[in-house]
Amino acid sequence: MTAISPTTTSQAAVRDASIAVAEGRAKARLRRRHALVIGLRLAILVVFLGLWELGADYNIIDPFFFASPSGIWDQIRVWVTEGTSQGPLWVQIYVTLEETFLGFVIGAVGGIAAGIILGRNRLLADVFSIYIKIANSVPRVVLGSVFIIALGLGMASKVALAVVMVFFVVFANAFQGVREADRAMIANAQILGASPFQITRTVIIPSAMSWILASLHVSFGFALVGAVVGEFLGAKQGMGLLISTAQGAFNANGVFAAMIILAVMALVVEFIITRFENYVVKWRPAPYNEQGT
Amino acid sequence: MQLQPMAAERLSQAAPPADAAIAIDDVTLRFVTPDGHMMTAIRDFTMTVARGEFACVVGPTGCGKSTTLNLVTGLLRPTTGNVRVMGNPVNDISRDIGFVFQADALFPWRSVIDNVAAGPLYRGTPKAQAYERARDWIGRVGLGRFEKHYPHQLSGGMRKRVALAQTFINQPKILLMDEPFSALDMQTRTAMQDELLGLWSEQKSSVVFVTHDLEEAVALADKVYVLTAGPGTVKSVYRIDLPRPRVMADIRYDPKFVEIAKVIWNDLREEVQLGQSRTLQTGH
């Protein structure tokens, strides 16, 4: 048997150079593709808004009912520069955000705590599971009316509605996450010397964390819905009231403008939650479709 | 009884002596399945592991190999018979026990050093001291450059090294291993077996090593327990008189090793066939 040396040094140098060229080409190709995707996204937006605007100009789409991009833009500009009928726009945004945020935090903390307690205790879980299912199947938005009656037109009724919107989503995920904690991992911690409390803190909660974080994404949207619907049903301030006022005045532009402002608020918070998630679960391998970007 | 060659002496089972590291005496374990049936996992099971001894348990799939380990940890209680660890009845999970799992049981959200330090931290060792010891053990398993890595960034073999360090840092007097290397490729497995024997000879712990791989059992053990197809009981016990230290990469070409493996395989084969045909008949 003899070992065969595959390449000489000069061949290796030629090979390295050709690899560098190929890498350069591949990188350029990736950049072009990225630019193409962004370009197409912008094109779709421009075409969509353009058709809408033209349709409204030529009365194919009745702007009285379905608004028009320029009308919506004007409305937002008026709100920003001159304020709304119920005070400055910023106050409305602030009020709605405050209600959403309070409801989100209270609902999420409650949901996580309840999920962990029931997930760790089989008897409690078996007893309560039926009631949670029932409570979950009630259309919770209807509770808004009850809260308005009981808690009044102020902030408390909106926060309460946001809390019930958030609680069940987070609870269900936390519960599932706790139940799916790896048995071998729990046994390992136990044999390494962990007490039941240490197991909950160092094994159960971290392994439920991906589930909980996934639910936080969804439930922030729910909290926003809860707050806006609450304002819709009866309030003195907030984005929901703005929508309901615009609706009362047959101002379609106003409804769309408020909707867009709410969407921007949701996107900003979603971005913050994603940053938080990446920070908390930095131990996790990158999902397949994000690798290499 | 047929005559056994010297290297693989068949032992007769007697009541365990009082000073044994592990003594499982005539244990039967039954449990109720979720649909209300009574299942016998193991019956009339007797096993003794002396201090510093390396015992392997082989047997067909589903014969209760892992059950024997859980009896020693105290995670399962015998229906009849009794289990003693270091002379004391098993009540709670003993601090003397270390367990290496078949599946990956590392904590994926902790870095290598945080994983290895987990045991001492759980047991109340001050942080600085726990990390100092963890660093030492990571060095001993050759992962000094990977302290800050997370488990998903390591290969299967490296994760097993972390698991060994995580277990050995508690300096267990009893080491239980449940098919720890079965998911590894051949070369990595051989390296890990050498690593394990090295650590074991330093620590002088008593080992129960469960495997379905007879050659692995013969290569590692002082004593091999062959179990019957489920419900498991001890079919026979062999003493393996191969000299130590053993080198895993070479031992499989040793004629004495081949001879011992052949003798035990003849014994094990009918149980494996029985177990397989039973699985096909009952469908589970």
List the topology elements:
The complex is a heterodimer of chains A (293) and B (284).
Chain A: H1 9-57, H2 63-66, H3 69-82, H4 89-120, H5 122-137, H6 143-151, H7 155-179, H8 183-192, H9 196-233, H10 239-248, H11 252-280
Helix pairs in contact in A: 3-11, 4-5, 4-7, 4-9, 6-7, 7-9, 8-9, 9-10, 9-11, 10-11
Chain B: E1 8-11, E2 22-32, E3 38-49, E4 54-58, H1 65-73, E5 80-85, E6 88-89, E7 97-100, H2 112-122, H3 127-140, H4 156-168, E8 174-178, H5 186-203, E9 206-210, H6 214-220, E10 223-227, E11 234-240, H7 248-251, H8 255-282
Parallel strand pairs in B: 4-9, 4-10, 7-8, 8-9
Antiparallel strand pairs in B: 1-11, 2-3, 2-5, 5-6, 10-11
Helix pairs in contact in B: 2-3, 2-4, 3-4, 4-5, 6-8
What can you see in these coordinates?
The complex is a heterodimer of chains A (293) and B (284). Chain A is an all-alpha fold and 293 residues long. Chain A folds into two domains: 8-61; 69-290, MetI-like (MetI-like fold). Helix content of chain A is 81%, strand content 0%. Chain A is built from eleven helices and no strands. In chain A, helix 4 packs parallel to helix 7 (155-179), helix 7 packs antiparallel against helix 9 (196-233) and helix 9 (196-233) runs antiparallel to helix 11 (252-280). The longest helix of chain A has 49 residues, at 9-57. Chain A is flat and about 90 Å long. With 284 residues, chain B is α/β, with parallel strands linked by helices. The two termini of chain B are 34 Å apart. Residues 1-5 of chain B have low confidence and may be disordered. Chain B folds into two domains: 8-96 and 173-282, Rossmann fold; 109-171, no CATH class. Chain B has helices at 65-73, 112-122, 127-140, 156-168, 186-203, 214-220, 248-251, 255-282; strands at 8-11, 22-32, 38-49, 54-58, 80-85, 88-89, 97-100, 174-178, 206-210, 223-227, 234-240. In chain B, 37% of the residues lie in helices and 23% in strands. Chain B is built from eight helices and eleven strands. In chain B, the strands form two sheets. A seven-stranded mixed beta sheet of chain B has the order 1-11-10-4-9-8-7, with helices on both faces. In chain B, strands 3-2-5-6 form a four-stranded antiparallel beta sheet, with helices on one face. Classes of the chains: A mainly alpha (293), B alpha/beta (284).
